[in-house]
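FORM 7B: Structural annotation worksheet

SECTION A. Query
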Amino acid sequence: MSSETSTAVLRYSAFTPEGAGGNPAGIVLDAAGLDPTRMLALAAEVGYSETAFVMARDDAERRFRVRYFSPLVEVPFCGHATVATAVALAERNGPGEFVFDTPAGEIPVSTAADPDGTVRATLTSVPTRSRPATPDELTPALAALRWAEGDLDPELPPHVAFGGAEHLVLAVASRARLADLAYDFDGLADVMRQHGWTTLQLVWREADDLFHVRDPFPVGGVVEDPATGAAAAAFGGYLRTLGLVREPMTLTLHQGEDMGCPSELLVDIDPTDPRVRVTGRARPIGDPH
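SECTION B. Predicted structure
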């Protein structure tokens, strides 16, 4: 008997640009009776990059305690599963403001319905931070990616950025380099585990407010994430740290294009605020079982 038989699992795709694409997430709205072993097993059975588990809920106060599991490990924060969970709650409780208490900290989430009925969610990250990557971090990461330092954009230096979880940010000089991603899965996973990174945020800058991104996630048992809200928040903090945000701005991140799962993430950054806001749509998807 599938463990899902006795545990209701919703499936939503988050950061869908026009009702298609996006990154699927599992959602368990009543996980109070589940222990970590069961949650990890359930996340592995669902098979998505993350499943969100609502451990405690106060519907009157619209406050929820949430944990996130990939098929292999628990992660402190997951943006796309946060957006998906908030949309699922808004469809049941009505749009408005929610607060998620996560292992990474308090995450306010605002939801609203678009004219076509699709619900959009905006999460506000914990305070972001970013620092230059060290040679001991960069060299093995590039080797596992099978990239060279000459592939990188010298105007956007490698950093380790945080927006609820840590991500190595690498900017490449060409869209062709970003499209050619054939990395050493086990080797990169080893490097990431050594340094505590959740994903790599690989980016190419098309314009100051438009980036194309890819996110390998081998530590979670996933080759690549088609939309990564936590990394988007960290990336916003990275640009702020570099001094590239001189006034409030909104970035558009296109992700998942090279996987056939196009996704769109809107990232609002204020130079005076270390918190970053990430917005996307989510929609229910069918149960594959």
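SECTION C. Observations
The chain has a mean pLDDT of 95. Residues 129-281 form a domain with the Diaminopimelate Epimerase; Chain A, domain 1 fold (CATH 3.10.310.10).

SECTION D. Sign-off
Analyst initials: ____
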